[in-house]
Amino acid sequence: MNDTSSPKSPSFLDALTPIIALVIMLSMAVIFFKDNSSYGPNQIALLFAMGIAIIIGLKNGFKWDGIEKAIIHGISISLGAILILLAVGSLIGTWLLSGTVPTMVYLGLQIINPSWFYAAACVVCGIVAMSIGSSWTTAATVGVAFIGIAGGFDMSASVTAGAVISGAYFGDKLSPLSETTNLAPAVAGSELFDHIRYMLWTTVPSISIALVLFLVIGFSHSGAEVASASSIDTLTKTLESTYNISILNLIPLAILLYMAYKKVPAFPAVSIGAFIGAVWAVIFQQELIMSMASEGVTGIKATVMVVWTAFFDGIVVSTGNKEIDELLSRGGMSTMLNTIWLIMMALSFGAVLEHLGMLKRFVDSILAAAKSTGSLIASTVATCIGTNLITADQYMAIVMPGRMYKEEYARRGLHPTVLSRTLEDSGTITSPLIPWNTCGAFMFATLALTSYEFIFYCFFNLINPIMALVYGFIGFKIRKIVTN
Asked: How much is the pTM?
């Protein structure tokens, strides 16, 4: 018997109950476990909330077989992201071993001034992301280096992460090479470059405000808060004594960025980048490799074992300098397993809610109250953010609201670019702000953050949805369909 032939639609209370339960449990996880909440407690909260949703679905007549298939489908959506996460773990491990990331940190300490460091991180990441169309690749390469440079300057890792993410998503959003930038107009029915031009009206003011804030924070640091010249000199000398620092170490970065620019898919591109990093380590960092080998292991066996370990478990560097050791001792696929666990639980929860009709129940209630253009745009923004929260996937946060609101925008005479811009201003941009979303979990793991404070410094990501709401309610740059 088909499990969708007899089930009844969920009531608003039915749809609301799992969400309320999840919010309560996630709040308790943060209160009880603090910054460790994503290392198990949040996953269990998502699992229990999914269980509550399933019980309600069974009560409404849904069958377990259908729910199970929805969960499996939900997890399958994440497999591409999971493969990329594993590849990024290997990339970080081999690039730390090869000297690619340490060389970027070394050069950054030489040329960047602490006063405008945060703004520089934002601008550089924006340029790179716009060139290659990938916020993830930008964060995993240039972003990791900026986190290291921040440690050298004794600057805040949270603010640096906010600057990296702000720049990465600004560039990604305006790049014709970006998947989400192509997806939004495809769903809404607008044209790609028309969509990008129209986004400039909300995107440029948002990034401008963000840059001003990063400059203010940077210049507000007193001399006592920024590492002294002698401290920076110590860090650079430690890097020089540990690694063979050379401009040639940046070739793996150049190759990866070129592959991204040529639109090589992320998983093979990052995997190739990790492999090239391993080759570079063998060529340029033999002394470091031998120092990491197990006692009594030498020669080719030592080289193979250390490089092999870098792929799956990263590296551990012992220089005697705590800051350098913390910066360089990381990477490997194993460091991404907790993030993968979180993503699988979050997507399973979202898949169950979608299958049981709970997401549609929310949207129907919201749409009924959206009378004006401003309230329609506000509803779209709220739906995109809500979908990011519930389904934990930025693509779902673009596709689902896009499909649901497309006809309503057309009925009200609004140009498709209004919808496509709003989908990006809220669906794409807010995804890294949610710890259990694929994007938020990726940024947290890749940048090796220990606190969720970085969310409050993603100024561009916080300002952009607000800009979309302001434009909607005051009627500024809201295009109408022109009929002859």
From this structure: 0.80
